[in-house]
Amino acid sequence: MDNHKLSFNGQILHTPYPFSDAYNSLSMPVYLTAAYEFDTAEEMEAAFIGKSANHTYSRITNPTVQYFENRVQNITGALSVTALNSGMAAISNAIITLAQTGSNIVTSRHLFGNTYSFFANTMASFGVETRFCDLTNPYEVEAHIDANTCAIFLEIITNPQLEVADLKALSAIAKQIGVPIVADTTIIPFCAFKAKDWGINIEIVSSTKYISGGATSLGGLIIDYGNFNWLSSPKLHTLAKEFGPAAYTVKLRKEIHRNLGAYMTPQVAYMQNLGLETLSIRYERSTKTCQQLSERLVKVPKVESVNYTGLPFNSFHALSNSQFGERPGAMFTFNLASREACFSFLNKLKLIKRATNLFDNKTLAIHPASTIFGNFTEAVRRDMHVSDKTIRISVGLEEVEDLFRDINQALL
Ligand SMILES: *Cc1c(COP(=O)(O)O)cnc(C)c1O
Q1: Which residue CA neighbors atom 13 of ligand 1 most closely?
Q2: In ligand 1, which atom is closest to the CA atom of 209?
Q3: Strand (E) positions, 61-145?
Q4: Cis peptide before 160, with omega less than 30 degrees from 0?
Q5: Domain boundary among 276, 296, 321
Q6: Domain end residue (candidates: 276, 309, 338)
Q7: What one-character DSSP code corresponds to residue 92?
Q8: Is the same domain home to 300 and 254?
Q9: How many domains does the chain have?
Q10: 150 to each of 9, 101, 169, 230, 233, how far by Cα in Å?
């Protein structure tokens, strides 16, 4: 049966194995092995130099991990998918593939905490500059780009500010200048957002979140759409002459990911494969609950404001709607009167868990300023627009009534 005619769930569930399993196992087995045996020296040589697709060593490829990658590749239509052992491993591998001393990255201050620190501290120490600007202002973005810009990096909905950049405007600029767009799409999974259609060249996902679902494991994905002309990349220019649009994948798979050694493990790939099978169903359910819950909280007196781009009065509503559909993810924030009011609210919760992480099956609440951003100075937090009055909710699979009741009693 032609796989591409199937819907999202059909394709995910019925992606064939790349190699048939010896026992006709219905689920892709967990291949817990570090290395692979060969019958002859010739076959061994062919595998090691990439002339055959056989596995050699599980830091480089592994059948269980490869099956997870294949499923994502099949559903996204990407040129290549690389599974790493966390979202941060995906971000660091993706950026190191592109950046070299003297490069700069144009991005926003509205970033996941460790991503910000990776740019501002880790990459800076290797002579890679990060230029923070307002990604919702295309003119400002253009003004920050020069011949050494190796990427525009963005999160499609920032966390916890919930800011949305105009992807059409950004990709038009990026295309004209010849700079790739690297986007972290963790907030809206590929069952609801087709990154390739919006001009994204390299998509990054923390699969710890929606894909794992039950918060079973950490994982990250680098999805290369093969839609960028790497001749304009200072670092990949030479490779692009030989490999064309595959230059990025060649650099990543043949050098960077092997050398950094952060490949996903087979046990984790097994769990993430299971999560993938229910992704679109869980997404539908939790985003519907998120929409209902945020609408109801708008009317609660102690809640000063509610931030969710699915709300009609939200300043990013129309843009969010056009890019991500009617239900833009299962995370929203709201503001209370003070930091003390936030702490009191969190301490009174009975059902909702006080925890970091996003898109667990259980609903989670956190005060971002004192936790995820707790190690930043107050000045940096101000620059990042992380307020002391904000609570972030990641909506899970409970009934909306149960969640609303818990929030209401905790606000008393
Ligand atoms: C969680 C998260 C990350 C980091 O992913 P890990 O799997 O925790 O390493 C990166 N970006 C966003 C938007 C995230 O939510």
Answers
A1: 186
A2: 1
A3: 80-84, 104-107, 129-132
A4: yes
A5: 276
A6: 276
A7: H
A8: no
A9: 2
A10: 36, 11, 18, 10, 7
Tell whether 104 is covered by a domain: yes
- Minimal-distance CA residue to ligand 1 atom 15: 186
pTM beyond 0.85, yes or no? yes
In a domain, 53, yes or no: no
Q: Which two structure tokens, joined as six digits, stand for 408?
A: 């209401």
- What CATH code is carried by the domain that includes residue 234? 3.40.640.10
Place of tokens 């710890």: 208
Per-residue pLDDT of the chain (412 residues; tens, 9 = 90+): 455 578 999 999 999 988 888 899 999 999 999 999 999 999 999 999 999 999 999 999 999 999 999 999 999 999 999 999 999 999 999 999 999 999 999 999 999 989 999 999 999 999 999 999 999 999 999 999 999 999 999 999 999 999 999 999 999 999 999 999 999 999 999 999 999 999 999 999 999 999 998 889 999 999 999 999 999 999 999 999 999 999 999 999 999 999 999 999 999 999 999 999 999 999 999 999 999 999 999 999 999 999 999 999 999 999 999 999 999 999 999 999 999 999 999 999 999 999 999 999 999 999 999 999 999 899 989 988 999 999 999 999 999 999 999 999 999 9
268 and 361: one domain? no
Enclosing domain of residue 361: 281-411
Going by their DSSP bridges, the two strands 390-394 and 104-107 should be labelled as: unpaired
Choosing from 91, 114, 217, 360 the residue with most ligand 1 atoms within 8 A of its CB, the one to mutate for a pocket test is 114
